[in-house]
Q: What sequence folds into this?
């Protein structure tokens, strides 16, 4: 049982090497979160996927405010069906820590500005209502811009809709939360097919919820910016017939296209925000470097196969 133990949280999120909260969670800067708000969910998802983080998105959820997006740092918790000896242990630990109330209240009472509760309630809806009007009010008061993601139920939806806090959930039931107990607080958490760790950046849209590992935020921003500036440069060329869709969609641009792109970035005012990006891998791939080419194909999730040792074909 892992109940908000700082050293365990630090070890769990050991790939992060920046500032942390008192509970050990990674503290991605507000500035980086503001940049993430300017990116599409697909731009964020793509570099995660090609870096091996293939289970970070979950759709098939309802939201309290369909037009409202959600961004914030994850505070995670997991619940299981109730078992008396485990429940006694959880409450013994809670008393030692000075926590009051029931399990879901321990989590909500820990929240800070910008936090998002991410709760695995094993898709329990009847007697699995993690928040209602009261606790959603508390979430809004503590987090200001945060919210809740629960793989389970909620109640008091009519009250909740009057609160400017985004909540993602699986279903609604009038029953209070019963017959379940917390087994992890700021530990690994599963939301459907996605995994979330404490301090991950939660991004919720109409599509669903995406969890960005804290240590991957810089990679996400860099690769999203590269996708944006490629499109900014290439789309006018498509409209003019200078490039074909095959040219633009190719994972490896030729040397002339790459040089034209870099010139555009350095000289066009519209591309000023993209200056300073590192294009070494892309340039080496354009020049025929095999290792760089493999890296670019991996980034675009393209399978390669060789017919002989001297010939490579690409299967899209």
A:
């Amino acid at each position: 049982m892992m109940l908000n133990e700082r050293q365990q949280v630090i070890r769990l999120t050991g790939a992060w090497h920046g500032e942390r909260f008192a509970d050990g969670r990674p503290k991605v800067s507000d500035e980086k979160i503001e940049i993430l708000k300017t990116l599409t969910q697909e731009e964020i998802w793509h570099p995660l996927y090609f870096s091996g983080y293939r289970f970070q998105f979950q759709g098939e959820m309802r939201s309290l405010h369909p037009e409202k997006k959600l961004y914030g740092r994850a505070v995670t918790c997991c619940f299981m069906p109730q078992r008396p000896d485990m429940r006694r242990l959880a409450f013994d630990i809670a008393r030692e820590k000075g926590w009051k109330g029931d399990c879901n209240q321990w989590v909500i009472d820990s929240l800070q500005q910008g936090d998002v509760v991410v709760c695995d309630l094993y898709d329990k809806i009847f007697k699995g209502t993690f928040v209602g009007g009261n606790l959603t009010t508390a979430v809004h008061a503590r987090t200001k811009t945060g919210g809740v993601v629960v793989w389970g139920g909620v109640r008091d939806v009519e009250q909740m809709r009057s609160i400017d806090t985004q909540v993602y959930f699986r279903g609604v039931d009038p029953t209070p939360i019963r017959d379940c107990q917390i087994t992890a607080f700021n530990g690994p958490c599963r939301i459907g097919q996605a995994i979330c760790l404490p301090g991950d950046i939660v991004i919720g849209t109409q599509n669903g919820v995406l969890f960005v590992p804290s240590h991957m935020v810089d990679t996400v921003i860099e690769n999203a910016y590269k996708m944006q500036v490629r499109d900014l440069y290439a789309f006018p060329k498509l409209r003019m017939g200078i490039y074909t869709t095959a040219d633009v969609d190719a994972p490896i641009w030729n040397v002339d296209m790459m040089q034209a792109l870099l010139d555009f970035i350095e000289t066009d005012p519209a591309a000023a925000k993209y200056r300073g990006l590192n294009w070494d891998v892309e340039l080496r791939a354009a020049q025929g470097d095999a290792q760089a080419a493999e890296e670019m194909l991996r980034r675009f999730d393209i399978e390669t196969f060789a017919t002989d040792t001297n010939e490579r074909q690409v299967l899209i």
